[in-house]
Amino acid sequence: MSNLNDLTALCLPNGSRLAADETECRLSLSLEGQPLLTLRLVRGPELHVHLLERFNRSEGQAFWAACYWLFARDPDCLRLVWQLQDVPTEAVLSGLLVPTPVSGQYHCERTLFWQLPQPWLGHSLTGSYPQQMVITGGKRHPLRPVKPRGEVYRRFDARLGAWVSLRTLEIEQDLARFNRWQNSPRVASFWQEEGSLEQHREYLSKLEADPHTLTLIGCFDDQPFAYFEAYWAKEDRIAPFYDAGDYDRGIHMLVGEENHRGPHKVASWLSALVHYLFLDDPRTQRVVAEPRADNAKMIGYMQNQCFHCEKEFDFPHKRAALMVLGRERFFDRCRLA
């Protein structure tokens, strides 16, 4: 393993605690103080995992926890090679483990692991929502599901040592905060949405009634620090400027709290935001953004998270950079931990 995190425990979104006793060749995991499984580890170009003992837990839960621990421990690890005597039916059916031609051998691919929606995703109907094409404002697009309310995503960032979560914006709860953020000179220079509380109430109310945009509050350790807008690109003003897919999502981003700025924080919240949007609907193939073309700092942060600049183009109010991140590239390159 090349880039090990110094972990002794990981927290899961449901509040339970995964703890480990790990040596070079052995790993024992417990969940909430109860033993989960014991593994023998054989390190090499790939990490080989041998099950020694599994305690009174479902195999799917135990194997998922082990994969999570090992991927979080080493963000550079792309594949785990499991050696098992019995067929892990539950894990195979979920996509956690993939059978290989070698008898008793299974792969856990990092690219597949992070596409499993639970436990990161809050309750969502988006991924199973049926497709029906409709026309809104002259634009043909899929009918969108009812927007969620409450927390939609939560993950413990092992490198940051903090919870990163997303919840939907509630106007009465968040209006004063949103107003303060938008009136910050730093934010106003890019968003250009300074105004009064009533102006911002009207702004947020319009978005709340708009089925193509979801307003979100980003939190570190449950403390709000950022505002995001996630929109369906097909119905958005960006659609005429590129070949927008039916389930492409776009993002607008605002970090309001000064103490949560910096590249290490951006890496955490931007990967979480994109992860949520790809999990929310498996039909989403791209996440796009259109920062101002002269916002070199944000463009650089996005490129560090595997976005690429497709082109520059002119909105009526700004010259923008079209930043694009494909689903395959995200899960192939993501360094979630």
Automatic annotation (TrEMBL):
GO terms for molecular function: N-acyltransferase activity. GO terms for cellular component: cytoplasm. GO terms for biological process: siderophore biosynthetic process. Coiled coil: none annotated. Pfam families: Acetyltransf_8. Gene3D superfamilies: 3.40.630.30. Residues 167-214 form the Acyltransferase MbtK/IucB-like conserved domain. Pathway: Siderophore biosynthesis. InterPro entries: Acyl_CoA_acyltransferase, Acyltransferase_MbtK/IucB-like. It is found in: Cytoplasm. Keywords: Cytoplasm, Transferase. The keyword Membrane does not apply. The keyword 4Fe-4S does not apply. This is GNAT family N-acetyltransferase. It comes from Pseudomonas laurylsulfativorans. The lineage of its organism: Bacteria, Pseudomonadati, Pseudomonadota, Gammaproteobacteria, Pseudomonadales.
